Amino acid sequence: MSKIRRCAVRSRQAGPASVGFLAALVLVFGMLTQGPFAVADDGTSNSVTVTTQASVWTTPVSWSTAGYYFPLFTPVTTSKDLIGYNVTVTNQTGVVQDVTVNLAVTNQDGAAVFTSSDGGSVAAGVGQTKDFGYTIGMLPNGSYTFVASAKVGDAIEDTQTYRLGVLPSLTGVDPTFTGLGANTGDDYNLGYLEMLQMCRVVGVTAARMVVPWDVVETTPGAYDFTTTSSLNDAGRCGQAPLIVLGMNNDAVYPDRYSDAWLTAFQNYAQQTAEQYKGITHDYEVWDEFNAAGSGDTSPATYYKILQAAYQGVKAADPDAIVIAGSTAPAGDHIANYDFIRQVAAQGATGAEGWRYMDGVSYHYPALATFIPEAATLQQDIVAQATSSTGD
Predict the structure, then answer these.
(1) Which of 67, 120, 173, 294 is the most exposed place for a label (fewest CB within 10 A)?
(2) Pairing relation of β-strands 38-39 and 282-285?
(3) Position with higher pLDDT, 1 vs 199
């Protein structure tokens, strides 16, 4: 499983999966019924149903202070936030229901961090509700499971489970400058080595270099990296190559993005990683796929390409860093990281897009807005990982 390293313009240096972010979260579970009674799997009818909702406070205030808390729209928050939990019990009958609400919060190790049991009566009538509020407080970094259940008598009538990840806050933390890179392209002519040397003179320590699929595989299954051998010079010039994998290879594989095409692209990615293992560990998948020139700009298609490239690269070099995104600005880079969010959410359980992202890049944010936008993007991607696995 992939760990999110860092979301930045180009993310090369690994960091923990729990690198922090700025905002707050919440997921609201709807009632499990559509009608006057909730029907359980065994065919019995429940007398009450449960709806749960988490909240956070931006400043330490008491539960009774109105107007200072807000819902959490993604299941991740920070260790500096106060966490509250709301349980609403809905009567599904025409008589008063005396209920007991139990709330248990456990961490990723299964250890209990909060428990509570409250009782009350829900007024007679279908749709009548009673709210129970809990102040959990601040939680340390980790993954948490909230289980709320409502009992009528000795029988549990309904249960809701909620997953929450807590990461460090980036508030007040200065971004880390990891180096200066240059996009040197794929024109590997006789002056390429001199260009790398000049880049090094002005302080460039990383070179973004394309290994064109249609150049190295002109015959199906046969690979020739002679044209891109200048990548071997990058290390000698003090450059750390970031290899861009792509783009289309219509002369050999004209059926773009088909299953056969994806298999061929995975093989190309694996062969490229085999060729340059020891020279670089950094790979970026495609260049500005969301731009019109790709023909198909959908997150669903890019997810398939990313998955194929990731599996190919990791087969050759398990320690490699695979960077997703590289999105085109198209006049609005906000739309671009929305594209990345959608890619991260693609795929079935166990094969979500975020699992194939060791890092994220996008072109080209305004410096004044980059840090908060990168933090927000990071939060959203890690939120998806946390809600699925707790990692």
Answers:
(1) 67
(2) unpaired
(3) 199
